[in-house]
C-alpha cells in the first residue's frame, strides 16, 4: 500500500476510489489465469523476478509452516533503527525474504507505532515492514488513513487461508512507487489468520477496501509488488515511470535482477 489510492495506499485509496471499487465490482471480471500466463511470456527480468515471488507465494502454505516452526525455535526478534524511512522501488528490501516474528515485546510495539506514524505522514493507508527496510512478516493499516479516525490494525505473521472466487479491479498506488497508480485485479474477500502484538492468534474475514489494502500489504511480505500483478496492457501504461524509478535509484537495484 504503500499500495494505495486516494489517500495513496501503500494503498492510497480514498473515497473516490471506493466509489470506483463499487462500480468496478459490478463489472467484476472473472479473473483468469491469463494474466499470469502473460507475465510468464514477458521476458523483462524484473517481471520475471516478480513471477518467481508470486510462484513462491502460491506454494507458501507449507513453506510458511516450516518457517514458522523454525522461528518458534529461534524466536526471531525484530531489528530496526529509528527513524524509519520508506524504501522506494527497486530497493532490495522490497524483494528480500521476510522472517517470521517470534518475539512479541515492547520493541515490536515500538515498530508498529513508528510504522503508523510514517504511514500517516506519507498519506498512506497501509504499510508493510519490508517497505521500511525491516524484513519481517508484519503490516499495519488504517483504511481511514488518519490518526484518530478509523481502525488501526496491526497484523503479525498473517496468513491467507481462503480467497473469494469473486475478483475486482481497483486502482492501487504504493508508497514505494511514488505517484504511480494503476489497476490491479484481486479477490474481493479473504479469510486471514494472524497474531497481534502480544502474539495472540486470531482469525478474521476481510471484504471490500480493507481486503484490498490487506492483500496489497500481504504481497509485500512475500516480496510481490503491485506491478507484478498488473496485466501487460496495464503495466505498459506505467512502464516508463517504473523505468524512471530504477534510473533514479540505480544503487537500489537488487542484485541478480
Ligand atoms: Zn505497497
UniProtKB/TrEMBL annotation:
Its EC number is 3.5.1.88. Pfam families: Pep_deformylase. Removes the formyl group from the N-terminal Met of newly synthesized proteins. It comes from Micromonas commoda (strain RCC299 / NOUM17 / CCMP2709). Its main location: plastid. It comes from the Eukaryota. Keywords: Chloroplast, Hydrolase, Iron, Metal-binding, Plastid, Protein biosynthesis, Transit peptide. InterPro entries: Peptide_deformylase, Peptide_deformylase_sf. The gene is PDF. This is Peptide deformylase. It is found in: Plastid, Chloroplast. It is an enzyme of class 3 (hydrolase). It catalyses: N-terminal N-formyl-L-methionyl-[peptide] + H2O = N-terminal L-methionyl-[peptide] + formate. GO terms for molecular function: metal ion binding; peptide deformylase activity. GO terms for biological process: translation.
Amino acid at each position: 500500500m504503500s499500495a494505495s489510492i486516494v489517500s495513496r495506499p501503500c494503498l492510497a485509496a480514498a473515497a473516490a476510489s471506493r466509489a470506483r471499487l463499487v462500480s468496478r465490482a459490478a463489472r467484476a471480471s472473472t479473473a483468469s489465469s491469463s494474466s499470469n500466463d502473460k507475465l510468464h511470456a514477458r521476458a523483462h527480468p524484473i517481471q520475471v523476478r516478480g513471477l518467481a515471488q508470486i510462484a513462491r507465494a502460491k506454494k507458501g502454505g507449507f513453506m510458511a509452516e516450516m518457517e514458522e516452526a523454525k522461528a518458534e525455535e529461534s524466536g526471531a526478534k525484530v531489528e530496526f533503527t529509528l527513524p524509519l524511512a520508506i524504501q522506494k522501488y527497486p530497493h532490495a528490501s522490497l524483494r528480500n525474504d521476510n522472517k517470521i516474528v517470534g518475539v512479541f515485546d515492547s520493541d515490536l510495539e515500538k515498530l508498529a507505532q513508528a510504522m503508523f506514524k510514517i504511514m500517516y505522514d506519507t498519506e498512506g493507508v497501509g504499510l508493510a515492514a519490508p517497505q521500511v527496510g525491516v524484513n519481517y512478516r508484519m503490516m499495519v493499516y488504517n483504511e481511514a488513513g488518519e490518526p484518530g479516525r478509523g481502525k488501526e490494525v496491526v497484523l503479525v505473521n498473517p496468513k491467507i487461508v481462503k480467497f473469494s472466487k469473486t475478483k475486482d479491479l481497483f486502482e492501487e498506488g504504493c508508497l514505494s512507487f511514488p505517484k504511480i497508480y494503476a489497476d490491479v485485479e484481486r479477490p474481493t474477500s479473504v479469510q486471514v489468520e494472524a497474531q497481534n502484538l502480544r502474539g495472540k492468534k486470531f482469525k478474521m474475514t476481510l471484504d471490500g477496501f480493507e481486503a484490498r489494502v490487506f492483500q496489497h500489504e500481504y504481497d509485500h511480505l512475500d516480496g510481490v509488488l503491485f506491478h507484478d500483478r498488473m496485466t501487460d496492457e496495464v503495466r505498459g501504461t506505467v512502464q516508463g515511470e517504473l523505468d524512471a524509478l530504477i534510473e533514479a535509484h540505480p544503487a537500489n537495484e537488487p542484485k541478480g535482477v
